[in-house]
Design a protein that fits this description.
Elements lengths: L1 E7 L5 E5 L10 E7 L9 E6 H17 L13 E5 L15
Parallel strand pairs: 1-3
Antiparallel strand pairs: 2-5, 3-4
């Protein structure tokens, strides 16, 4: 099993990735996204996501963002930055996906 770990210090489950995430996937590769929360007594949240899910999500949402007009109606410029988020918590604490 291969694991990529990404963290954020926000209180919401979203992470910035590089465009390579769209093509970097394998059956035995997973992302463990960590959401570090503020506060001394607060434990982080973990999101365990198959790399194929991350690849599909980042590719689809980036393409949607490119065709969506910006705040002033302008076209978005392409960039190497991508975003993954799990707002619904579908992958929160899904350690069993690793098959270990």
């Amino acid at each position: 099993v291969g694991i990529q770990v990404k963290t954020n210090k926000a209180n919401k489950p979203e992470w910035i990735l590089n465009e390579k995430a769209e093509e970097y996937f394998a059956d035995n590769l997973f992302y463990v996204f960590v959401c570090l929360k503020s506060g001394n007594d607060t434990h982080p949240d973990f999101y365990i996501v198959p790399s194929s899910v991350v690849a599909g999500y980042t590719k689809r949402t980036h393409q949607e963002w490119l065709v969506m007009p910006g705040k002033k109606g302008q076209q978005h410029n392409n960039s190497p930055m991508r975003k993954f988020q799990d707002s619904d918590g579908n992958y929160k604490n899904k350690w069993e996906l690793l098959g270990l």
